Amino acid sequence: MLAYLLLLFIIVPFVELALLMKITDYVQSWQFTFGLVVVTGVVGAFLARLSGKQTFRRIQAELAEGRMPTDSLVDALMIFVAGALLMTPGILTDLFGFSLLVPLCRRAYRSWLRRWFKARFRFDSLTPGSPGQDTIIDSYVVDRRDSEPPGGA
Length: 153
Hints:
Blueprint: H1 2-27, H2 30-64, H3 70-87, H4 91-101, H5 103-120
């Protein structure tokens, strides 16, 4: 896993830099490329903030109804990641970040994440009386300071 992260943090910046250099060569203006990076960062931050507020309200509504806001919490995490990616200069990170802000794409990512977690982790839930549940023994604690010492002083 560490090797994948190292590759990600080494290869992605180089690819991003190469794309930015290609764009600069293509449009013959480094100002345009710089402006593109700044504009996507500002617009992305605005959209992430707007989506985050909507998701926060949805989480509050679901909690008020007594439901666990699992999908909304995953959406909030994806929106947070989108904001971080959009603030990072680059084309690929911006494209992925903007895709995380689109509800339809988030639903697809959520579905993929659910399948990924189910394939790698085992989820069990126990209800009272279900097989495999340990016996519960009710007990109490005696505070020795309230009773006589063992030697009877």
